[in-house]
Specification:
The structure holds 2 protein chains of 2 kinds. Chain A is of the alpha/beta class. Chain A is built from 12 helices and 12 strands. In chain A, 40% of the residues lie in helices and 16% in strands. In chain A, strand 1 (26-31), helix 2 (35-49) and strand 2 (52-57) form a beta-alpha-beta unit. Classes of the chains: A alpha/beta, B mainly alpha.
Chain lengths: 334, 572
């Protein structure tokens, strides 16, 4: 027993030793971008600027809790990723500080806080992906609008995530409510229900289904769609003409950041064309937010996307009620 | 002497006995400390989390109210989840027990060919992650399943919901029934059946009037055990239930992880907890009430006379059919791990294994470390509790026994929710740490150590230990020098089982993992959820290989140390 405890203690101690900082500038980052892509982006930053990055992977909820708990003695300099409403809350709770620097003015107003407390550094629009082979087989026309999805030819041929488990799906619900008005939006979703093959629990599962021809149409954020195109699957991305909402993960500098200069350097770099090009060069399949940045295969010009304007705070407040209503009305629809 | 006086005499005798016990315990500080630490840790790590679930379910906002329960009861969807869960558990426990009985009867009584093979087939699912059935069923019968789509070109085959889940859970849980029924049939002396046959009973008559009645308590216990396990199952329904066939354990999880609604998730899990605990304690009452063994000296081989050649053929055919399904499941997992894109491009590749050993290797390491540390602690702790309960007369031992067994009755989902509620604030902040995973596994698998420890202790004459005490040994010395060596084989047998469960558990762990400490099972679930069947299959293959290797190693070590006897203690 003693031996086991000793082993456990050693293991714990080993796990607790932090990575030793390199000489020169270092910035400490709490990252809420998925680990693989966070590493791609932050490694590129270090390679280009020589500033080392120490990053701790935390999804948005735990990251916020930690930043708040540490506010008297901040352990990190930058909160990297997590949808913008999280950063709005952090600003309101006075956990972050304003910084504009270079590149701030060029950002669209939907991608930044007017006072400079946060800015988005990439975005992922909602879209449809169609499998061209399946469309030909079932003889259905290419859908170009939300209304087209109601076509009975798509019966059991559409996959989308379930808002019960996926923020991606809530993005669909909220944007339909804003575009159509609440009752009409629920009517639409009820009419759509027979065409839905399955409501997946993960926000990225529909892309896997559409690429292998398991369904004709998939609804989710675009990165996995563009990845499927690059991998050679017979998939095409369509932005419905009524418009779509998007997620726009943001970055903030924490109040009391110890490595302020390095933090500002990171934020400047993220909003620069160079930093934005990394999204495409390193195959994150994220959409850049700065005009003139490189776009990947199959990505229409960034300025051409028709996006709708939704207050992320409003969407957050309505979530419980709208998802509940979705469960009661849409899931039980025949 | 009247009964009145005798009961009074008994009363005062009991009181003086209790006093004597306390005095003895006080004289032995090691025993007293062990008892106190055990009781204290059980209260903190078993009862406190459960109390936190109940507490949270009554606090939907400021102050206490039953509003969360009102929301659950008002929702037609959640009411459906409740009836689905109970109905599914009932169907699975009945069917699983039937198949388990047929398997056991065929192997023990009917002397069918390929007995060894059937035994292995029925054991493999026990040592695999509990959701492998669901994964394989999706790969075979899902929307781009090998059979439904690639071979038969059926799209939208209705596998999500009742059909698929029922199939997956029967395959996952019938082995538990098989083990129980095998034990029951083996302990029933076949001479009874042969005697009845010789007296002129027809085969059917003897089966119905001798075999079946003797097996009834075992059958009832198996049905209840399966009911509890199916109700608690999380992996299979998360993969297969689909949103149109809600299941309680999954809904509780979705409320908390998807909607951040802790009170409602807690309220749903209370609806899950109550039938589980009821069924579990009913099962223990049935098992405890009646010893239905008829062992007299050496166990005797069945003459097999009770089974007619026709019935034997039928039993054999049934066993082959079930075995074929199990083999098909494992083959498809193996193929899935090697196929490039399952259901689309079946050319062979090692890229999924490369992924697991690259990006995913941290989870493999974490899992091994967590299971490796938690298992021996759980086993040793379980043994200590078994010793305290079976061999000492400490006060509060009933509480110790009931509490430690409780964590077996409580569905993992409820425990997981309890742990995040209890340990995300002061005085014990453990969320996101290694400790919370270790503690969860230790306290979840203590009962395994207790069960095997108590079973073996009951077979060892306490006079051996009493002799040690009389010669001046204290409790610690007696335990480590006398008791422990005698129970080592059972200890390791329990340990293997705990290790398997720790390696393959997902329902509680899914709430407790963090980016720093993650588990293979949780990775498999998320790969399945996001449609990466190849990576999920590769992870599963590696997991099964690790578990098989661990069982093999412990078996070899025991065999070297204790001869054939030690090896046989492992029922795997």
């Amino acid at each position: 027993m003693k031996k086991i405890l000793a082993i456990a203690a050693i293991a714990l101690a080993l796990a607790a030793i932090p990575a030793f900082a390199k000489p020169g500038q270092t910035v400490v980052v709490y990252s809420s971008v998925d680990e693989v892509n966070a590493k791609k982006i932050l490694d590129a930053f270090t390679a280009e600027t020589g500033t080392a990055v120490q990053f701790v992977q935390l999804s948005s909820g735990p990251a916020y809790a930690r930043i708040k708990a540490e506010s008297n003695n901040p352990q990190a300099d930058v909160w990297f990723g997590a949808p913008s409403e999280n950063h709005i809350i952090a600003k309101n709770e006075k956990l972050t500080q304003a910084y504009k620097g270079s590149g701030f003015d060029a950002l669209g107003k939907e991608f930044k806080d007017p006072d400079g407390f946060w800015r988005s550094f990439y975005m992922n629009p909602m879209a449809f992906a169609v499998n061209k082979e399946v469309l030909a087989r079932i003889g259905a026309p290419k859908p170009t609008s939300w209304a087209d999805l109601l076509n009975p030819a798509f019966k059991g041929q559409i996959q989308m995530p379930s808002p019960q488990s996926s923020g991606t799906a809530y993005n669909v619900v909220a944007s339909l409510v804003v575009m159509m008005g609440e009752d009409k939006a629920y009517d639409y979703m009820k009419k759509l229900a027979p065409n839905i093959q399955t409501y997946t629990s993960s926000g990225t599962a529909p892309s896997k289904a559409v690429q292998v021809g398991q369904c004709a149409v998939a609804l989710q954020f675009t990165p996995a769609f563009f990845e499927a195109i690059v991998k050679g699957f017979p998939v095409e991305v369509i932005f419905p003409k009524e418009g779509v909402w998007f997620e726009a993960p943001a970055v903030s500098i924490l109040k009391g950041a110890r490595n302020l200069a390095a933090a500002q350097e990171l934020v400047d770099w993220l909003s620069s064309v160079k930093g934005q090009n990394v999204m495409t060069d390193k195959q994150t399949f994220f959409y850049p937010v700065v005009a003139g940045a490189k776009l990947g295969t199959g990505m229409p010009a960034f300025e051409s996307l028709k996006t709708i304007d939704i207050d992320p705070l409003w969407a957050g407040e309505q979530k419980k009620r709208l998802v509940e209503r979705w469960v009661q009305e849409v899931l039980t629809a025949k | 002497m009247g009964s009145h006086t005798s009961s009074r005499a008994q009363g005062s005798q009991a009181a003086s006995q209790a006093l004597g016990r306390l005095k003895r315990v006080a004289r032995d500080p090691v025993l007293a400390a062990a008892a106190l630490i055990t009781l204290g840790s059980l209260i903190v790590f078993v009862l406190y989390p459960l109390a936190s679930v109940v507490d949270q379910s009554f606090r939907p906002g400021e102050g206490y109210s039953a509003a969360a329960y009102g929301e659950v009861l008002k929702s037609a969807y959640l009411r459906k989840a409740f009836t689905n869960s109970l109905g599914m558990s009932l169907a699975t426990s009945m069917t699983g027990t039937l198949i388990g009985f047929i398997f056991a009867f065929a192997v023990v009584r009917a002397n069918v060919p390929l007995k060894k093979f059937f035994n292995i087939v029925a054991v493999i699912p026990i040592v695999s992650p509990p959701f492998i059935g669901a994964l394989a069923i999706i790969m075979l019968f899902g929307n781009n399943g090998l059979i439904t789509w690639n071979l038969l070109k059926i799209q939208n085959f209705p596998i999500y919901g009742f059909n698929g889940l029922f199939l997956a859970q029967v395959v996952t849980f019938f082995p538990v029934a098989y083990m129980t029924m095998k034990g029951v049939l083996e302990s029933m002396n076949p001479v009874l059946e042969d005697a009845a046959l010789n007296l002129g009973g027809s085969r059917l008559n003897v089966f119905l009037r001798v075999t079946l009645p003797l097996a009834v308590p075992g059958i009832a216990s198996s049905i209840l055990l399966l009911f509890v396990e199916t109700l608690a199952d999380f992996g299979n329904p998360l993969i297969l239930a689909g949103s149109k066939f809600p299941i309680l354990s999954v809904q509780a999880y979705l409320q908390i992880v998807g909607m951040y609604d802790l009170p409602k998730g807690a309220a749903i899990s209370v609806f899950l907890l109550i039938p589980s605990v009821l069924a579990f304690f009913l099962q223990r009452a049935i098992v405890g009430r009646k010893k239905y063994t008829t062992v007299t000296g050496k166990p005797q081989a069945s003459s097999g006379k009770i089974v007619s050649p026709g019935a034997r053929g039928l039993l054999f055919a049934l066993c082959i059919a079930v075995s074929a399904l199990v083999v098909l499941i494992y083959l498809s997992i193996l193929l899935g791990a090697l196929a490039k894109v399952w259901g689309y491009d079946h050319s062979l590749t090692l890229e999924h294994f490369k992924f697991v050993f690259g990006v995913g290797f941290k989870a493999v390491r974490d899992t091994l470390m967590i299971a490796g540390i938690a298992t021996p602690i759980a086993g040793l702790f379980g043994m200590i509790i078994a010793f305290l309960v079976a061999r000492t007369k400490i006060p509060g031992k009933k509480l110790i026994e009931t509490t430690s067994i409780l964590s077996f009755a409580v569905p993992g989902t409820v425990i997981g929710i309890g742990y995040i509620l209890a340990f995300n604030h002061k005085p014990l902040v453990l969320t996101g740490t290694l400790a919370i995973l270790l503690l969860n596994f230790v306290f979840r698998y203590i009962p395994v150590g207790i069960e095997s420890g108590t079973a073996i202790l009951q077979q060892i004459d306490p006079s051996i230990e009493e002799a040690a005490v009389d010669l001046g040994a204290d409790a610690r010395r007696t335990f480590f020098r006398i008791t422990l060596p005698m129970i080592v084989p059972a200890f390791f047998s329990g340990l293997v089982f705990a290790f398997v469960r720790a390696m393959t558990a997902v329902s509680a762990a899914i709430f407790l993992v963090s980016s720093r400490w993650n588990l293979m099972t949780v990775h498999i679930m998320s790969q399945v959820e996001s449609g990466n069947l190849g990576a999920a299959a590769a992870y599963s293959v590696i997991l099964v290989v690790i578990v098989a290797a661990a069982i093999g190693l412990i078996r070899l070590a025991l065999r070297a140390q204790y001869g054939r006897f030690g090896g046989n203690m492992l029922h795997f």
